[in-house]
Amino acid sequence: MNSKEALKKETAAVSNRYVLMGDKETDPEKKEHYYRMALEVEPKNVSALNKMGLLSHQNGKLREAIRFFDAVIGSGKVKNLYPIYFNKSMVLKELKEYEAALNYINKALTFDPKNLQAEVLKKELQDIVDEKYRRQAEREKQAAYSDLAKEKRYSSWDPPTMSILVNMMYYKDWHLYKHRRNFEITDEQREKIASKLASKVFCCGKCNFYRNNGTCKKKKNIQVDAKAICKAFQLRN
Q1: Do the domain assignments include residue 147?
Q2: Residue 71, Cβ density class (10 Å: 0-12 exposed, 13-18 middle, ≥19 buried)
Q3: By C-alpha distance, which of 205, 211, 209, 198 is closest to 228?
Q4: Would you write out the chain's pLDDT as a tens digit for each of its 237 residues?
Q5: 177/236 same-domain check
Q6: Is residue 139 part of a domain?
């Protein structure tokens, strides 16, 4: 054995001793101290990396736990990655990264397909992800419906004739209206109607068919712009 190999072996032994010392401790802070010492000696000690991942998870340091588990996965030294993938899935679940968590529990199951604990976690995550997509689809459906409703929204400016508006304004009683509808309109009346149209005093919002929810009885309850107007306009009493 050459000196380089001997040094490597000794370094690994020292690092592992720190891991064992950490395992014997009951105080979490002392455990962490020894595991970190092990990693200072040998940064790729997978046992220390995994234990630090578990300890970080336990202490609520979720992103740090992910980094330690990733280091174990990236080391290429562990053949059975089931526990690492499972633990990473648990951390991702706590982070509410449910799709990523589902991905890693599926990876864990490739190493132990019949593991009941993993199957239970997978079902829970799958239900959460499915519900997320169901809600997303519902939101998209509502948005599409809203867009469609906007497309169907009446916003044109197509008022009744001047004659109808004058008679509607001055002769609201039908009996008066029907006898006067063919009478000539005075300039004063014409000016007043034109003014009311220009200022949009006459508009859908002032129509007898307009509802408070923005729909129109005459237009099969479709949404209408309150400042629009159509031929069916009827001045609200």
Answers
A1: no
A2: buried
A3: 205
A4: 577 787 888 888 999 999 999 999 999 999 999 999 999 999 999 999 999 999 999 999 999 999 999 999 999 999 999 999 999 999 999 999 999 999 999 999 999 999 999 999 999 999 999 999 888 888 877 776 666 556 677 888 999 888 788 777 776 654 555 555 556 678 888 888 889 899 988 999 999 899 888 888 888 767 888 999 998 888 887
A5: yes
A6: no
Task: Indicate left, alpha or beta for 69 from its phi (over 0: left) and psi (-120 to 50: alpha).
Answer: alpha
Gap between the Cα atoms of 49 and 141, Å rounded = 46
Any idea how long the chain is?
237
Domain for residue 68, yes or no? Answer: yes
Per-residue tokens: 9 = 């072996």
Kindly state the tokens that stand for 19: 């891991």
Q: Exposure of 56 by Cβ count < 10 A (0-12 exposed, 13-18 middle, 19+ buried)? A: buried
**Position of tokens 């109607």?**
193
DSSP string of 178-225? HHHTTSPPPHHHHHHHHHHHHTTSSSGGGBTTB-TTSBBGGGTT-BB-
- Cα gap 31→23, rounded to integer Å: 7
Phi, psi for 58 (deg, rounded to 5): -60, -35
Q: Which domain holds residue 234?
A: 153-237
The pTM of the full predicted model, rounded to 2 decimals, is: 0.61
